[in-house]
Amino acid sequence: MPFKTAVTRAARAMREDLRLHLVAISSLTVAFLCLAAALFAITNLATIAERWGQEGRMSVYLADGAEGRDIEQLRMLIESLPEVRSVEHVTARDARAQLAEGADEAALAGVPSELFPESLEITLAGGTGAGRMAAIAERLTRFGAVEQVETYEGWFEQLETLITTGRVVAGALAGLVLLCVLFVVANTIRLAIAGRREEIEVLKLCGASDGFVRGPFLVEGAVQGFLSSAFAVLLLFAAFVAVRGELDATIASLAGVRAAFIHPAIAVALIFGGGLVGATGSALSLRRYMGV
Amino acid sequence: MAGSGKVVRPFAFFRAGNSAHNNPNNRPILVLEDVYKYFKADQPTLKGVNLSVERGEFVFVTGPSGAGKSTLLQLIYRAQTVDEGRILFCGRDIARLTAKSIPYLRRNLGVVFQDFKIIGHWTVYENVAVALEILSMPRRLVRSRVAEALERVGLGGRGGELTSSLSGGEQQRVAVARAIVAEPALILADEPTGNLDPTLALDVLTLFEEINDTGTTVLFATHDHSLLAARNHRIVYIDEGRVVEARKGLGAWADRQTA
After folding, report:
1. Residue B238 maps to which CATH number?
2. pLDDT tens digits for B142-183?
3. Do A192 and A250 have their domain in common?
4. Which domain holds residue B176?
5. How far is CA A145 from its chain centroid?
6. How far is A250 from chain B (nearest CA, A)?
7. ipTM of the predicted structure?
8. Hey, which residues 175-204 in chain B have their CB within 8 Å of chain A?
9. Are B146 and B181 in contact (CB under 8 A)?
10. What domain range is A138 assigned to?
11. Which of A134, A155, A176 is the last residue of a domain?
């Protein structure tokens, strides 16, 4: 059966039973929106992990009243370490300015710069192990000008755990959404089959092949899945654009990266995958309720 | 079927247009050999039915309600399967067709029912065109063939109307147009006048006769004796699953009964 005929017949059937299909598409949109939101969260956590994982980071907080000469010596020593890629001296004023970038300036108006710790921000070469980082930290702590050394190891482990958990949750959610889509599409098509029994009977009496009878229903299922996943991606994108400013500030201040929407390839895969799952749900329903 | 080269029809040689009279050497279009159909194990609906229908014939199939008229037709368009015996359509045993081949058989048959079996929310055109869309026929050809079929059944120019808005007689004409539009070799009419008043019933019978005049074989099931009496066609009478025949109308039937 030519694809064009199936599409024409499906379009006519969907027009005739518009309400049923709209209800199905709205339900499926909610399901796909959950999945897209989970993918969005994963995307951003992964960006943070990538940013922090590519280069090891350490912050050496300097003691109050540390002399400039001691700081310079410390800096030279750190720079001489083979694992160190760069060292940046962040003064109390710089630290205040960095925080102010991602926060309400008015709220920080009364806070003096002296309250912010002065530090040396170290960027380590990729592949520096946790053991080596701990050894460097332990060595630096011995200096009198050093108040504390932060390796972010715990934070990074938590982030890794969060991403792993997020991926598991997204996977489970994808499975759940898949079942939900199959269920909703299969039931919609079942109702459509029931409503078009007479039409199916006429088609078969006229000599329609199973493919001819099945075609429009498959197209309907695919359209439902495609449209609902496309709506879900569009809704998520609209929400992302609406709150992007605030989201950027929060993520930038916490992790130093900008909020990112799900990758276009993933969005396209989600939309076409939705269509495929819709067609599958329809095929299952046809096999079960129509025997073709 | 000019212009429809793409259409795959394994039974393409089942074409209309060869009347028995013009081609006496042609084999019968339909042969039933010792056909049995059981719906209950000990009570066959059809008991050893033997029947032969020539190309271009018009045959009345009659008998009391429940005698097996509809079952006979259902066996021919494979809505039912024979339990014993065989049915040859153009020499091929249709009882042995696989499920995938049944659509190809039906594309060479036109079936008309008492309850019309047309889709009320479709237009007249859509109801008729569906029989050609199934054959993947080009749209332009579909349009001309549907227009021609509608003209033949007296519904020319009414393709755009919804079938639900038509009278019973007109709806049956739409069903007839759908049955003939693909130019089938054989038309099976299962009580097509059952829902129509006597005048309309006679009109519909005349319509089938006009179709038969073009060479299409017609099997017309009815229990309406006024129709049988109105024409001198061959009558196949089914009673309690057995077939008795009369070659020329009710008169011959009465003579046979008397004898």
Report:
1. 3.40.50.300
2. 999 999 999 988 898 999 999 999 998 899 999 999 999 998
3. yes
4. 119-183
5. 42
6. 57
7. 0.81
8. 178, 182
9. yes
10. 54-155
11. A155
